Amino acid sequence: MALKLSCPSYVIPGTWRENIEYINNEIPDITNVELLFFIFDEETRILLAPEEDFIRSYTGRLTFTVHLPDPFLPEHVDLLEKTNAVAKHWILHPPEKGKEKEFTDWIDSLRTVYGNRFLLENLIGRNHPWFIKYTDWPLCLDTGHALLRGHSPSLYYHRFKERIREIHLHDVIAGTD
Questions:
Q1: Distance between CA atoms of 140 and 90, rounded to whole angstroms?
Q2: What's the predicted TM-score (pTM) here?
Q3: For the chain, which domains are there?
């Protein structure tokens, strides 16, 4: 697997477009951008609409992953449609404890439509081990989240490297990732 140097879509204050232009012009070694959608409400939909064609225009230069909202809910499925043409992967956080089976069934149904492009990111306070055990989903290793849980990112990587498709590499400072 070839490694790609990636960064989030928020490296400077501004829109997705302004950040992609900045990355393209100022950080040419970056070949993947993670489009961040921590929330996907009506305001975000309005902000995204005029930028969708611009983002698509960069698919020859960049690849994109999409960080889905947390929680990812049925009312956010239109984000999959809006990013389907550009998303190599969609990054998911596990649901709150007690909702694992329902969430798994729903995401598995989406996988039949969109393919095996959903990556489960390790997250503090969520039942990530349940998903490791009961699903075959590919993973996104977030080193900061692992460190905050007191886990070794290196051990996590070596244990699950066959399933890991993306790594969010960063540190923890003063208890914050």
A1: 10
A2: 0.91
A3: 6-168 (3.20.20.150)
